[in-house]
Amino acid sequence: MSRRGTALLLALATLVAIGLLGAIALSVARVQRTVTRQSLGAARASWAAQAGVARILADWRALGLESLSVGASASAGVTTLDPLTRSADSVVRLGKSVFEVRVSGERLDAGAMVTAREPQSVLVLLLQPAAPDRAAAWASGPVRLSGMASLSGGDAVPAGWDSSCPGAAAPGPGVLAQGGSTVDMSGCTAAGCLSGTPPIARDTLAAGPGHLAALHSFWGAIDTLIGGTVSGVAPLAGGGICTDSAGLNWGAPEDPAHPCFDLFRVVGARSGTALLSGTGQGLLLGEGDLVLDGDFRFYGVVAASGSVILRGRSEVVGTVLAGLSGSDSLVLAAQARLARSVCAVRRALAGTARPVRLRVRGWFAVP
Amino acid sequence: MKDRRHGSVLVDVLVALVLFAVLGLLGLRLVISAERLAFATLYHEARAASLHGGAAFLRRELGGLGADSSGSDLLAFGPDSVVYRATRLAALACSVTTSEVRIRLDQTRGWRLPQPGRDSVLVPLLSDSGSTMPGRWIAGPIHAVAAASCGGAPALVLRTVLDSAQLAAVWLPALVPVRTFEVMQLRLYASSGEWWLGARSVSAGEGIQPVQGPLDPSGLRLAGFDSTGAGAAGGPASVRTLTARLLAAGDSVTLDLAPQGFP
Q1: What distance in Å separates the CA atoms of residue B124 and residue B177, rounded to the nearest whole number?
Q2: Dist. CA A65–CA A74, nearest whole Å
């Protein structure tokens, strides 16, 4: 009898011990699972918040945030990483060019309950390029005009832009030439091919190189990179909406009713690029020599580190900043036209502004 | 014949008692061992969970640090100690002058409202022209805090002293994103024979308080790296990213703290 009882007790003790160890293992596993879930949920919520910021910066223009009034806020929708990870986003305008992006990354469980939340705030600066608009052209070397070409420092308001421009500004210099650069008009066949107040001024502060360098710092923000011979630059829209993904759609400067009238491009041109036809607006950056030919017309700022050559019936309304390679800095030939336009420059600079995260203390994890 | 069954029963009972005692002792030791193991494991798990809490605290405190051309939020730095500007509030100011910063109460987010004598205010030298990226923030001590209004909205006015020449050189936006901070120290310290992650407000002259622990004697290890990824030999000003390691009871958590405020 006692042996049977001992066996029973031993079996019971063993079962209790095994049960206890099992309970311990289960408890450990549960703790680990909870900790891991919390960490993973927080990480996913944080990623969702960061994705929200990235989406807003990428869709800045499409979200119409530049039309927000100062002090106002707007919802920027929801960024969804997967069915259980999302970020609710909004934007507050703090000033003319300063915004605060507020995102709240969330991780949900299967019952749509929020298990982790990571609210973050990011300061965004609408960084716009800077370019001088006081002269039709700034040239670092010799300037040559010939044929029926014309270069004017009088302020031109493009046709149909009256509602977008404050009115004509005072006339400025035709050419702002660096140092002792020569301006050769001996080949002009039309009277008054160079005009301005005065027609030629000297850049005594040698500010041009700084402007050129500052403009080329926007090379990293180009919308379109071109090279060789380019034709057919033209606005493109469908269903009343501007198709801004098209590579040769550089806006519709000559049609204020067109959906792409407010579209401005930062275009990077490889050295030796020749533009032969079409119309565009914005910032045209040449990394070397740049040729405008045929009936190509551009509104805004043309800046090249090499020579800028306007031929045929090409036209620039705005300003040109020309560097130097070879013997000439700026050449206007045939029926080419360069007209200073303060409004075209300012609209192009504002239109090509880019939302950039404030690098210094621009991020805040909201508790 | 003499009946010998009485003696046999006694011996049987004694043997049975001894056997029960031995088996009972064995069983008891087994249960006690299992119980000790259970407590040790749960204690270990609690420490591991505590490490995660400590990691979250470090991420919250050090993740928002920044630096600009006037200096870094990281003021002193060692393998088991760090002194830094801890952000306590982010707010939008409707007015910034050299003597006061007026913040809208409905646009404040953070841990607590500003405390005079303890906190300072940071103001970005942010021109609203959009043509340049601001490179610096200026700091001023908060001498007093009072109720005020911003165009009818409830506000707080923070009395301070800001550099007038630097403020005059920028055209601030209508709403200025400002921050308040206090100087804090985090370090590993020993108390009652155990090691703790402690924190104290340097600004308020407080003593160290435990935040997380107990940790191992080398339970906090901080390392700073400069912009090239090398060890930050140039002191706290050269630090661009941090790693922190917490150790307790054989477990560890390593954090990559790449503060997003560094340039």
Answers
A1: 7
A2: 8
Of B27, B67, B134, the CB nearest to A358: B134
Say if residues A156 and A229 touch (Cβ distance below 8 Å): no
Amino acid symbol at A78: V
Tell which of B36, B52, B170 to mutate to test the A interface (max A CBs under 10 Å).
Answer: B52
Cβ-in-10-Å burial (0-12, 13-18, 19+) of B86 comes to: buried
pLDDT tens digits for A282-328? 999 999 999 999 999 999 999 999 999 999 999 999 999 998 877 88
Q: Do B16 and A364 touch (CB under 8 A)?
A: no
> pLDDT confidence of A3, banded at 50, 70, 90?
low
CB pairs below 8 Å between A and B: how many?
147
Question: What's the predicted TM-score (pTM) here?
Answer: 0.76
B96: closest CA of chain A, how far (Å): 14
d(CA A336, CA A147): 9
Look at the block and give the residue holding tokens 């601030």: B172
Tell me the residue type at B76.
A
Q: Do B20 and A6 touch (CB under 8 A)?
A: yes
**Torsion, Cα of B191, B193, B196, B202 (10° steps):** 20
Which residue in this structure is represented by tokens 């031995």?
A: B22
Closest chain B residue to the Cα of A14, Cα to Cα = B27
The SS3 call for residue A259 is: coil
What letter would DSSP give residue A78?
E
Complex-level ipTM: 0.78
Cα(A3)–Cα(A8) distance, integer angstroms: 9
Asked whether the beta carbons of B123 and B67 are under 8 A apart, the reply is no
Q: How far is CA B236 from the centre of its chain?
A: 18
Which two structure tokens, joined as six digits, stand for A2? 């006692």
The answer for residues whose C-beta is within 8 angstroms of residue B158's C-beta and 6 or more apart is B100, B101, B102, B103, B114, B121, B142, B144, B145, B180
- Angstrom distance (rounded) from CA A93 to CA A126: 11
Stretch among A14-28, A138-152, B182-196 having the lowest mean pLDDT: A14-28
Q: Is B51 helix (H, G, I), strand (E, B) or coil?
A: helix
What Å distances lie between residue A249 and A56, A241, A351, B141, CA to CA?
Answer: 23, 13, 14, 53
Residue A17, chain B, CB below 8 Å: the answer is yes
Chain B residues in contact with A94 by the CB 8 A cut-off are 92, 173-177
Question: Which residue in chain A has the smallest CA separation from B176?
Answer: A94
Nearest CA-CA partner of A246 in A237, A257, A256: A237
**Long-range interactions of B44-47: CB distance < 8 A, separation 24+:** B44/B249, B44/B250, B44/B251, B45/A27, B45/A28, B45/A31, B45/A32, B47/B214, B47/B248, B47/B249, B47/B251
What is the phi/psi pair of residue B121, to 5°?
Answer: -115, 140
